[in-house]
Task: inverse folding
């Protein structure tokens, strides 16, 4: 069974569109990638800005605007 | 904002595994979890998460503070406010019990200071060496104690031995009190220079704090007691 370990991560990093998250295995001396390390089960827990966070747009020229009013 | 788990994009296979944030997404990272299997690794390795901006600049690189060997497997949680996984790494809000501790501030961040800051207003910062032996040593070109209007106190039940080249105390009030051995002795020497600043004086008080004698900066000696006389026992 794989050991469970913890590592630090800076708080509050916002991933904008186009940002890339890399899960890597690095040589401890050179920092170069180490081949042959298999990575699985990757998941990210995030706070996501979704449709609920968008302000309601009111279009006074939309026909339903007058209907609802 | 809604907390959610992102499972897509990384897949499984040899490192590195990458995921690019979609154009419809704006995500604040809470943690990353990944399992590293080093059964077929080409050598020892350090699991890490690297975040790059859309321009390809590294936003942050967060390595595990330990090295895994060929054949090791580990599920690593990368999350804020977690210390490294190495044995002996400093952790917060827990008792750190280890062989040694070294804190070095060598950069410009935070004015290059290593700070111990007690913010509750009623606590203590304690440096303690239990037992009869040991030394608490502060080595610096300038040692600055600021009691901020309070009391700065050397406290010892037996002996305070101060032997600096220059001992310069600037304070509203200086109290030297020795109460041991049956004889109250404050020993200064072998040569003591008392320098009075312009217009200042040295006053000797009796046991209840009333002045009985005074030496002024102009060289005059004064008896301040209602009774008594200055006697020169030559």
Result:
């Amino acid at each position: 069974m794989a050991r469970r370990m913890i590592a630090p991560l800076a708080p509050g990093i916002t991933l904008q569109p186009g940002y890339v998250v890399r899960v890597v295995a690095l040589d401890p001396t050179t920092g170069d990638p180490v081949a042959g390390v298999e990575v699985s089960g990757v998941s990210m827990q995030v706070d996501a800005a979704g449709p609920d966070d968008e302000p309601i747009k009111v279009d006074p020229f939309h026909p339903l605007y007058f209907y609802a009013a | 904002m809604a907390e959610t788990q992102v499972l897509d994009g990384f897949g499984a296979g040899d490192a590195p595994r990458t995921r690019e944030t979609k154009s419809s997404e704006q995500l604040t990272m809470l943690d990353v979890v990944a399992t590293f299997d080093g059964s077929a690794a080409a050598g020892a390795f350090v699991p890490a998460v690297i975040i790059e901006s859309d321009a390809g600049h590294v936003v942050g690189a967060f390595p595990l503070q330990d090295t895994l060997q060929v054949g090791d497997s580990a599920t690593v949680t990368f999350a804020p406010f977690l210390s490294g996984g190495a044995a002996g790494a400093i952790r917060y809000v827990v008792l750190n019990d280890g062989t040694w501790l070294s804190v070095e501030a060598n950069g410009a961040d935070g004015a290059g200071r290593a700070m111990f800051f007690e913010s509750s207003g009623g606590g203590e910062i304690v440096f303690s060496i239990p037992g009869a032996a040991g030394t608490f040593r502060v080595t610096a070109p300038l040692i600055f104690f600021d009691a901020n209007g309070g009391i700065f106190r050397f406290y010892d039940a037996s002996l305070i031995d101060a032997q600096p080249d220059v001992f310069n105390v600037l304070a509203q009030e200086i109290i030297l009190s020795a109460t041991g051995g049956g004889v109250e002795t404050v020993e200064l020497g072998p040569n003591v220079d008392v320098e009075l600043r312009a217009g200042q004086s040295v006053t000797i008080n009796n046991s209840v704090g009333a002045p009985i004698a005074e030496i002024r900066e102009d060289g005059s000696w004064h008896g301040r007691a209602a009774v008594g006389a200055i006697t020169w026992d030559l």
Remarks:
- Residues 63-68 of chain A form the longest helix (6 residues).
- The beta strands of chain A are 3-8, 14-15, 20-26, 38-48.
- Chain A touches chain B through 48 residues (CB under 8 Å).
- The mean pLDDT of chain A is 81.
